[in-house]
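If you are new to this repository, start here. Below is one unmodified record pulled from the training split, so you can see the exact layout before writing a loader.
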Amino acid sequence: MSLPILQVIGYQNSGKTLFAEKFIEMATSAGRKVGVIKHHGHGAPDVSDQNKDTGRHREAGATVTGVSGGGMVSVQATQENEWDLNQLIRLYEMFDVDLILIEGYKEESYPKVAIIRDAEDLHLLEKSHIIGSIVKEQLDVPVKNSYQYDEMDRCINDVLKVLRRD
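And here is the target side for that same chain:
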């Protein structure tokens, strides 16, 4: 059985992270364990561990470093090319999660909620697998499940119902 996956897409400052936070809170309060993958489109993410053991191990040439304690594990892995989303999903499938939320990766083909800031963002609704949209401005949106920005919770509830059926 494959894990349910939802993508949230939109441009910078559209509200993707707010959607993700609310989605995670609402899903976890309903007893679901959520894994989150965020695409960092601006080079390597900041890991801020250069003076720690794991940073020193990575600087020495380790491909994978990890630290665990107190029920938490942090793993950092490097490779020559960008990580493929399917590689990341396979990695997340090893963890005990009920669903995966992906922030970004606009061109991938998983169910998506698009966050629309203004009319300039409407082209996002042409992406594949759009199951809903959240719109910041009053716009005529050609998507069946479209919500105003202040209806984000209602959108998330509806999406969670869809993900339960899959």
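Two things worth knowing about this chain: The beta strands are 5-9, 34-38, 64-69, 72-77, 99-103, 112-116, 130-135, 146-148. The two ends are 10 Å apart (CA to CA).
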